[in-house]
Amino acid sequence: MISASDLKLTFGKGTPLENPALRGMSLTVNQGEFVTVIGSNGAGKSTFLNALAGEVMVDSGTIIVDNQDVTKLPTHKRAHRVARVFQDPLAGTCEGLTIEENLALAIKRGQRRGLGAAVKARYLDQFRSSLSTLKLGLENRLGDKMGLLSGGQRQAVSLLMASLTPSAILLLDEHTAALDPKTADFVLELTQNIIAEQKLTALMVTHSMKQALEVGSRTVMLHQGQVVFDIAGPEREGLEVKDLLGLFEKQRGLEIDDDSLLLG
Amino acid sequence: MLSEIALYGAIETGLIYGLVAFGIYLSFRVLDFPDLTVDGSFPLGAAVAAILIINGVNPWLATGAAILAGMAAGAVTALLNVKLNILNLLASILTMIALYSVNLRIMGRPNVALLGEETVLTPWYDLGMKYHLVPVVLFAIITVVCLFLLWRFMKSETGLAMRATGANARMARAQGIATGAMVVLGVALSNGLVGLAGALFAQSQGAADVTMGVGVIVIGLASLIGGEAMITPSSVFRALLACVVGAILYRLAIAFALNANFMGLQAQDLNLITAVLVTLAIVLPGARNSLVSRLSRNKA
Q1: Whether A75 contacts chain B with CB within 8 A
Q2: Residue B172's domain spans which residues?
Q3: Does the keyword Nucleotide-binding apply (chain A) (predicted)?
């Protein structure tokens, strides 16, 4: 379970570029929930994810992961509970390391690293069987450099790395946005499969309202650093993009002017 | 042509600079941390070892102390960068400058002679080897041991975490790696190796001098880049091998250049030759690639 309450964060405080990114954001994600997060540019989606991961520190509010207050902890001290896939397909893996070395980094996520060999013989079978679920033939290329793989392949491996060890929450930051449509569909399907199979708790930021409704079990919309609506269960069934827009206008008395949200 | 003594001498210093190149590989290549501390940690290692030896300390212990001193210097540079957010290059320059004073303090004078003192080399002279071969054999053993240990380390969990820190710090943090601690450890190890090189250099040359560090960074980089041009660093082992091969070839090239009387080069031209060789080592691999692609394009 992960719980954020009343998070506030302002970038560039006291400068002409002062930008309040989070203005009292609160959200609780229960065990096994798959939450999709939408919102227009500047709504605070990425900042919220970065705050949960520890990449940015909030000015006030608390973040609780599995009953531990992690608000003040840096990224690497939360990593054993928080897994993450970035938007940039190149950001989640090290291109200069081999596929097996990248997986060996991930299998030790958040644990002590000693002087024993990083790539142990007993890991290899696990690596091969995990990679074979991708159906990309990567299980036979364990010793290849990550840089030889395409963006889509690398994002698929990033996803695998994030799910190699248990975590309290999996953060997906528009992780299909930088891929071509076909590859994006493949990675999204893979995401759904992994989350369903391992019963993961996940938070996926997306730029597409359609995707937000089709995927996951709950949808949250952010606007100006706050949650404007939060729908799940029967209420969410059969909902379409135009219903979401109606909900938004009812809540805010505003019209959405971000075309990319409507068209996505 | 090269005399036997000059040849052995070139290999001997090449092996010492191979250790420096290991250190520079760690900082520049693994951690992507341009570290100029080495110009100070090389004479620091020499100064610590020399002053301990003339005070009767066992030369191996003195050499160990030199390694620790180098590591401390590296840790200072890394902490200036990690904790105080000083730009890595500037942090290393600050430490380097500070070490000049520290080295003078350690030695109490600009240089310390080791003539007639017991060094790590002394017992080896009694083994009946050719006099000029002794340092070559001992330093080759030390270099091979360091290469092996570094190679194992790079393949370990901590070593892999260090490589990830240099290659993609954001990803490393997301995997739970304390990237700041990795930078401190890596730059400390790097300068520990350079301190070791300085200690061995002082013992083989018979003196430690406060100015002996000038240009060590350039020689180390020349060795690293030259070695990489020779042996493609497609794996950690090949990269480490490239450091040693590059350093020895570099010293041989210098020795040939200085011995080739017809060219009229003299010892004072050393730094000029170094700069030219480094430039060539950086430019030539790129020029070769563009030449190859131009030729293949013409064919197509």
Answers
A1: yes
A2: 4-212
A3: yes
Residue B241 falls inside a structural domain: no
**A73 and B CB contact within 8 Å:** no
Cβ contact, residue pair B173, A79, below 8 Å: yes
Query: How many other C-beta atoms can be found within 10 angstroms of the C-beta atom of residue B158?
Result: 20
Query: How far B234 CA sits from the closest chain A CA (Å)?
Result: 9
**pLDDT tens-digit profile of A87-144?**
998 999 999 999 999 999 999 998 899 999 999 999 999 999 999 988 899 999 999 9
Contact with chain B for residue A86, Cβ under 8 A: yes
CATH of A2-95+151-263, one of 3.90.220.20, 3.40.50.300, 3.10.129.10, 3.30.40.10: 3.40.50.300
Domain assignment present for residue B149? The answer is: yes
Compute how many other C-beta atoms are within 10 angstroms of the C-beta atom of residue B251.
Answer: 24
Query: How far, in Å, CA of B300 to CA of B287, rounded?
Result: 20
Domain residue extents for chain A: 2-95+151-263
**What is the phi-psi region of residue A225: left when phi exceeds 0, alpha when psi lies from -120 to 50, beta otherwise?**
left
Gap from B15 CA to chain A (nearest CA, Å) = 27
Å between A56 CA and nearest CA of chain B: 12
Round to whole Å and give the CA distance between A90 and A150. 9
Q: Rounded CA gap, B88 and B27, in Å?
A: 11
Contacts of B181 in chain A (CB under 8 A): none
Q: For residues A47 and A22, what is the distance between their CA atoms, to the nearest angstrom?
A: 7
Q: Is residue B116 part of a domain?
A: yes
Instruction: Count the neighbouring beta carbons within 10 Å of the beta carbon of residue A111.
Output: 13
Give the three-class secondary structure for B202.
helix
**CA A228 to CA A248: how far, in whole Å?**
7
CB A155 within 8 A of CB A28: no
Q: Is residue B126 part of a domain?
A: yes
CB B240 within 8 A of CB B150: yes
Model pTM? Answer: 0.89
Instruction: Report how many domains make up chain B.
Output: 1
The model's pLDDT over B190-207, given as tens digits with 9 standing for 90+, comes to: 999 999 999 999 999 999
Q: Please choose, from the candidates B271, B270, B263, B256, the residue with its C-alpha nearest in 3D space to the C-alpha of residue B2.
A: B256
